[in-house]
């Protein structure tokens, strides 16, 4: 069942979102060749604890970590590890913050050192695709309008859109109805209503959109070793347009 949130619930989720943004901004300072994603994982655990919050995805369906850390051809749900990041890597850090029962979810892709021009363009297109999708998150629009905006732009720039993983409703648990595909046809799907809170989180690939699963049954990666990037916001549908709860002001 799709739940619509009260102003109080949205405000509570926004507070979680503000903390999530602070966390990402601290991570951005840490990203450099030679750091490991396990070091980032340990930082996030302590940072959230210090601020009275918990990592909601830790323990979710057996997942062991506070963050997902996906590198290069890993699309999503990469495990934090002790291997060092290398110059030129692209790493996506994804997390869900629970602050006093309010949830916020945001993934962000980072350049490690000097990324090549195609990698920079992948990141730029992915971020713009996210915001083009958000522009369609209006009362009365349909879910297909979001996916269509993302797909037409990303494919027009020569990249592909992952289809096996989608955005979703959020609150009171991590994954709630409805699914929010990042591809599709305009004016199709469930109509967006005031009070819905959703994530939009396009995963954009250099090569094929198709994915394969690692033996850990969590980490998805591209089938052709092409790199993948992802940016994600949590947002509320309001009568005044989409209200981004995890905005980084950049």
TrEMBL record:
It is an enzyme of class 3 (hydrolase). The keyword tRNA-binding does not apply. Belongs to the peptidase M24A family. Methionine aminopeptidase type 1 subfamily. Monomer. A divalent metal cation 1 binds at residues 94, 105, 232. Its cofactor is Co(2+); Zn(2+); Mn(2+); Fe(2+). GO terms for biological process: proteolysis. PROSITE patterns: MAP_1 (PS00680). Keywords: Aminopeptidase, Hydrolase, Metal-binding, Protease. Its EC number is 3.4.11.18. This is Methionine aminopeptidase. Binds 2 divalent metal cations per subunit. Has a high-affinity and a low affinity metal-binding site. The true nature of the physiological cofactor is under debate. The enzyme is active with cobalt, zinc, manganese or divalent iron ions. Most likely, methionine aminopeptidases function as mononuclear Fe(2+)-metalloproteases under physiological conditions, and the catalytically relevant metal-binding site has been assigned to the histidine-containing high-affinity site. Substrate binds at residues 77, 175. It catalyses: Release of N-terminal amino acids, preferentially methionine, from peptides and arylamides. Removes the N-terminal methionine from nascent proteins. The N-terminal methionine is often cleaved when the second residue in the primary sequence is small and uncharged (Met-Ala-, Cys, Gly, Pro, Ser, Thr, or Val). Requires deformylation of the N(alpha)-formylated initiator methionine before it can be hydrolyzed. GO terms for cellular component: cytosol. PANTHER family: METHIONINE AMINOPEPTIDASE. A divalent metal cation 2 binds at residues 105, 168, 201, 232. GO terms for molecular function: initiator methionyl aminopeptidase activity; metal ion binding; metalloaminopeptidase activity. Signal peptide: none annotated. Residues 12-239 form the Peptidase M24 domain. The gene is map.
């Amino acid at each position: 069942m799709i739940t619509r949130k009260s102003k109080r619930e949205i405000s509570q989720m926004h507070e979680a979102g503000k903390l999530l943004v602070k966390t990402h901004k601290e991570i951005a300072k840490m990203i450099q060749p030679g750091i490991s994603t396990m070091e980032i994982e340990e930082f996030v655990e302590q940072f959230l604890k210090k601020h009275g919050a918990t990592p909601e995805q830790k323990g979710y369906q057996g997942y062991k970590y506070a963050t997902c850390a996906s590198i290069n051809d890993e699309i999503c749900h990469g495990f934090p590890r002790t291997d060092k990041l290398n110059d030129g890597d692209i790493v996506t850090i994804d997390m869900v913050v629970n602050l006093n029962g309010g949830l916020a979810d945001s993934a962000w892709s980072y350049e490690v050192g000097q990324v090549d021009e195609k990698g920079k363009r992948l990141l730029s297109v992915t971020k713009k695709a996210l915001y083009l999708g958000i522009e369609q998150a209006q009362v009365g629009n349909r879910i297909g309008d979001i996916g269509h905006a993302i797909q037409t732009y990303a494919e027009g720039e020569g990249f592909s859109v992952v289809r096996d993983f989608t955005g979703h409703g959020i609150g009171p648990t991590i994954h709630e109805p409805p699914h929010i595909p990042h591809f599709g046809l305009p004016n199709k799907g469930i109509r967006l209503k005031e009070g819905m809170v959703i994530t939009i989180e396009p995963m954009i690939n250099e090569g094929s959109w198709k994915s394969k699963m690692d033996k850990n049954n969590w980490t998805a990666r591209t089938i052709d070793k092409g790199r993948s990037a992802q940016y994600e916001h949590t947002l509320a549908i309001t009568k005044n347009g989409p209200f981004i709860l995890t905005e980084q002001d950049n």
